[in-house]
Amino acid sequence: MYWNSKDVSVFLDQKEFIDTAVIPLLLIDGQASQVKQNASSAEFLMALTVFIENQFKGRVVLLPPVSYTLKSSRQQLGNEWSEMLKEAGFKHLFFVSSDMSWGTEANALNVIYTPSIPLEHMDQRLRQSVLEDQLRQIIPVFAKRWADSST
Prior knowledge:
About 50% of the residues lie in helices and about 15% in strands. By secondary structure, the chain is an alpha/beta fold. It comes from Paenisporosarcina antarctica. This is DUF2487 family protein. InterPro entries: DUF2487.
């Protein structure tokens, strides 16, 4: 489900089943040499998180992406979102990023790192296959974290 008025109404009615928020994290680097890479990473991450939402439909809400810069405090950003979404009733929060610089904050904030794969020149079938491969690597991470929190 997506962060729109129709789906949020369903979330509010079924909070006991829809317990997880997913937020794509998008690095925006103003350097001219990085702009195309940032855009390509954003395209990949948005397509992948839609796949995640489809896989876990009924349990996950895909929130709009959070953009940040190199100067942003990743810890502060993660903590603010975590606190706000807990107050909103989510039991689990997963950030998904193609930015390796999340480093030490990644585990504490539930950041799932996935390398960006340029999708722009792929035909639809290859693109689908690439996204499915990435999703297969991410599913166990979700399952483990959900299982760990229920014990």
